[in-house]
Amino acid sequence: MKRIKLGILQTNHDKSVEVGDAFPDDAHRFRDLFDAQDDRFQYRVYMTIGGEVPQDLDEQDAFMITGSPLSVLDRHVFTDDLLDFIRRCDQAKKPLLGACFGHQAIALALGGHVERSVAGYNVGIEDTRFHTRRDWMTPERDSLPLYVFHEDQVTQLPADCTLLGSSAKCEHASFAKGDHIFTTQAHPEFSHDFMSCVLRFTESKMPAQDARRGWESLASRQEGYVFGTWATNFFKKAINHA
């Protein structure tokens, strides 16, 4: 069977010795998540952090935008081109997945609002409770425990978008638009070791109670692999629908 061509827009390039040199980058973490499944993709990584954004939507069958420690509320070298790319995907109904920074960037590009959370950092493992189901959400789950690490969050969805899931500290934790856009505020691609390393490296920059809650939550299970299956199902349906 022909492999899906997936373009991964990488919006982070961690150069720290403690994190960046110790673990694979965001694109590789998503590749590992997807490659654990029976369906395998053909990948093309775009270093959007350096300004590389796909010009021709037909270069790939589908795209995804990774997370990043950067804030979508700040101006970056790639900001205008990335937001334009998202709008072009939406107009063409090109399958597009966004995680964390990608989730927020899609909301912002399509007319939603993103703000710094008044509740502070949301770090660790948190359940996303799903209010709305799509047929590609199999295996079925009412909620998914997933790794999270964010301070910004979507506070208003764009028009014509559907809220899929919420978490205790993030009302708009997952949304969709039509059959071609799917997002999550979470990090399904994280591993326990990576989450622990990031939290250890950054806990001095956040309130002690946020770091403590994060560490305590890591004793829980997480189901990023289920989200990976959902994402694959989403891509396949969106490509067929297109």
Mean pLDDT: 94
Neighbour order of strands in the largest sheet: 2-1-3-4-11-10-9-6-7
Number of strands: 11
Give the strand content: 25-35%
The biggest beta sheet is recorded as: 9 strands, mixed
Assembly state of the chains shown: single chain
Regions with little confidence, pLDDT below 50 for 5+ residues: none
Total helices: the number is: 6
Helix content: 25-40%
The CATH topology is given as: Rossmann fold
As a whole number of angstroms, the C-alpha radius of gyration is 17 Å
The H/E string reads: EHEEHEHEEEEEEEHHH
Number of domains: 1
What is the first-to-last residue Cα distance?
Answer: 18 Å
Do you know the CATH architecture? 3-Layer(aba) Sandwich
Structural class: alpha/beta
Query: Can you identify the CATH class?
Result: Alpha Beta
Looking at CATH, the homologous superfamily is Class I glutamine amidotransferase (GATase) domain
Q: Describe the global form.
A: globular
Model description:
- The chain has about 240 residues and is of the alpha/beta class.
- It has a single domain (about 5-240), classed as Class I glutamine amidotransferase (GATase) domain (Rossmann fold).
- Helix content is about 30%, strand content about 25%.
- It contains 6 helices and 11 strands.
- The strands form 2 sheets. Strands 2-1-3-4-11-10-9-6-7 form a 9-stranded mixed β-sheet, sandwiched between helices.
- A hairpin with a 2-residue loop joins β9 (about 160-165) and β10.
- α2 packs across α3 (about 100-110).
Features:
single chain; alpha/beta; 242 residues; Rossmann fold; 30% helix
Offer a quick outline of the entry.
This protein is α/β, with parallel strands linked by helices and 242 residues long. The chain has 6 helices and 11 strands.
